[in-house]
Every structure is written in C-alpha cells, then in structure tokens.
Amino acid sequence: MRIILLGAPGAGKGTQAQFLMGKYGIPQISTGDMLRAAIKAGTELGLAAKKVMDEGKLVSDELIIGLVKERIAQDDCKNGFLLDGFPRTIPQADAMVENGVAVDHVIEFDVPDDVIVSRMSGRRVHSASGRVYHVEYNPPKVEGKDDVTGEELVIRPDDQEDTVRKRLAVYHEQTEPLVTYYKAQAEDGKCQFHSVKGTKPVEEVSQSLASMLG
Ligand code: AP5
Ligand code: ZN
Fold first, then answer.
1. Which among 20, 57, 112, 210 is least surrounded, fewest beta carbons within 10 Å?
2. Can you identify the CATH homologous superfamily of domain 2-213?
C-alpha cells in the first residue's frame, strides 16, 4: 500500500505514521526526519537545509525530489510506503507522476490553525526514531523520556510560535493546493482521496484511518 499523508505542520502526520507503520508493515518516509538526520550528521544536505528549516520555509524541490527518489528505490519500499511531509508542492507531486510513482491513498488531515499553534508548544520528539509525543495529549510513560529507548526527548527548534505561524502560512500557500490536485486525481481514478478530522483524540483518528484504508 502506498499512502500520502497530507496536512499542515502539527496536524498529526508523524503521530499517525507510527500507527500505520505498525498496522500495515510499511516504512514511513518523513522528509522532515530525513533532513533533521542530515543536519545532525553534518552532511552537505544538512548544512543547506538547516537555515531554511529554522526559518520555517521549504527546502528546494530539487534537493527533496532527489532525496525521496533515492529512498523509494530501496528494498524495504517494494511493498509500499507512507509518505509523511512529501509531496509539499505541485512540482514535487508532478515529479512523482513523471517518475511513474503511483499512490493508492491520499489522506488529508483537517485541523484549524489555532489548534495547531497550541499543540506545537507541547510537542516533544525522540530525534533518533522520529517518535512524537505531547506533554498533555500523548504523554510518554516517563516524563521527558522516550517509551522505547528511555532516551531524552527534545523540543524541535522550529516549534517556536512565530516559526509555527510562518510554517502555517507556507502550508496554505504552497502545500494546500495539493488537496485540489489529488481530488482531481481521485476523480480520474488514479488514487483514493480521504479527509480525516485531525482534531479528534489520537486513537479516534487512528480508528478512522483504519476504516478508510481497510
Ligand atoms: P516536517 O518535519 O515534515 O514538519 P511538518 O510538516 O511541519 O509537520 P510536523 O512534523 O510539524 O507535524 P506532524 O503533522 O507530523 O504532527 P505530529 O504528529 O508531530 O518538516 C519540517 C521542515 O522540513 C519543513 O518546515 C521544511 O523546511 C522541511 N521539509 C520537510 N519536507 C519537505 C518537503 N517535502 N519539501 C520542502 N521542505 C521540506 O503532531 C504534532 C503534535 O500534536 C505532537 O505533539 C503530537 O503528540 C500532537 N498530536 C498529534 N495528533 C494529535 C491529536 N489527534 N490530538 C492532540 N494532539 C495530537
Ligand atoms: Zn512530522
């Protein structure tokens, strides 16, 4: 199964990706996590991406398309994958079509901006795995520690309120047009388009996704 998770920053893509990976046995491809790993490793890609990400802007299509193309070609993606945070622009979506990468399901997470701003202030992440928590809505078993490894949780540098607002503006301008794009593809029978209310509790969103995907 090939799935695209489409939604604003903080809509819950990474959280539900954890659930879907376990349920369907397909890998999560999070371009955000891949970029953060590159920053940590100090690679050329990481150096180029850091400033852009800290400002809440998008990394160039060219860099991202190359990154995803390479990742999708790996063995573990043979039976499907979960795209989290890609595509994020019309040229990125067009690149998938040009490279013959079809998808089965596109899921849009519907969450209003004001909910997102308040959510982000409580997010904590485990950098190595990409596991996501929230101090109130999805707390770890031990405060400040990852459930699996017990390692320290951190706050993402782009989760400050002014950066979150910039990321939301970028989302509305550059990514939201993909909703119309994929609705049109669904009408042509190329994929299925679903919209999920991302404001419900984490488990309820997971249940909705499971019934949509079968
Ligand atoms: P990326 O890492 O993709 O960030 P994002 O899209 O902004 O999304 P987030 O990871 O912030 O949110 P999410 O939807 O995964 O929400 P989460 O599950 O964590 O990208 C970061 C940057 O990298 C970009 O700004 C850009 O610079 C660059 N980049 C990445 N991809 C790119 C691309 N394709 N092209 C160009 N540039 C790219 O949840 C958020 C919080 O809410 C958590 O605390 C969680 O516990 C909580 N929560 C989740 N669900 C619920 C719920 N139902 N109820 C209550 N709380 C909930
Ligand atoms: Zn995420």
1. 112
2. P-loop containing nucleotide triphosphate hydrolases (3.40.50.300)
